[in-house]
Amino acid sequence: MTGASRAQPGDRPCIPYSVCHNCEAFLCRADILTCPAGHNVDTFFRYGGGSDVAVSVVDAKAASLRVTRKEITLEESRVALNKSLSSALKNGHLMVLACQESNPDMDALCYDGFPLDALKKGGKEIITDQHAKKIITDADAKSTGNVKIPNKEFAVAVTSYFEKEDLDDFLFAKGMAFGSIGKKAFQIISIKYEEGTPLLD
After folding, report:
1. Among 42, 12, 46, which residue's Cα sits nearest to residue 26?
2. What is the per-residue DSSP string for 80-129?
């Protein structure tokens, strides 16, 4: 892997953006909260995350903001989140919760169909039959004979445009997006572009 060493549990690496195209070990399978200085990380995931792992990008900023603006109800936003999580959990996809520069109200948005536990430790805590019964929709279960089975390849990443030094104040403080989960549930990776470094094809 060019330009960066493989992440180990507990590592807090700082890697150049140009490495992203070859770093699914960092960005797809680790327990992470990515923290780039720019907006390229969500685009990277929307185009597949540089690997053969299927990726579903969920816009947490819009999910929260549209409720605040009363464009949709809280229930409608929760249903949409559940639909995304259900598909990802059943099919073993990487679900990326894109927060952008926002502080989404995750305490309000989360419920049985989209539990806070989904955001802990890269999603590992909900890969259980018990969680699957509450999360996977009847429509998604049809292809497995109406049995709701979690796929062990499922994983979660959270992306944010905040700088690493601002995370405590804007995401992990009491009352903030992940304040009730806690910083220890995430592995933080800071992605910084190195001036003059060519992007990989």
Report:
1. 12
2. HHHHHHHHHHHHTPEEEEE-TT----HHHH-BTTB-GGGGSGGGGGG-SH
Across the chain, mean pLDDT equals 78
Q: Cβ(137)–Cβ(83) under 8 Å? A: yes
Residue closest to 161 by CA, chosen among 98, 107, 96, 95? 98
Give the pTM: 0.77
Neighbours of 39 (CB within 10 A): 13
What pLDDT shows up at residue 61?
95
- Which structure tokens are listed for 4? 């960066």
Architecture of the domain made up of 14-192: 3-Layer(aba) Sandwich (3.40)
Cα gap 36→105, rounded to integer Å: 21
Gyration radius from the chain CA atoms? 17
What lies within 8 Å, CB to CB, of 99 at 6+ separation is 60, 61, 158, 159, 160, 161, 171, 177
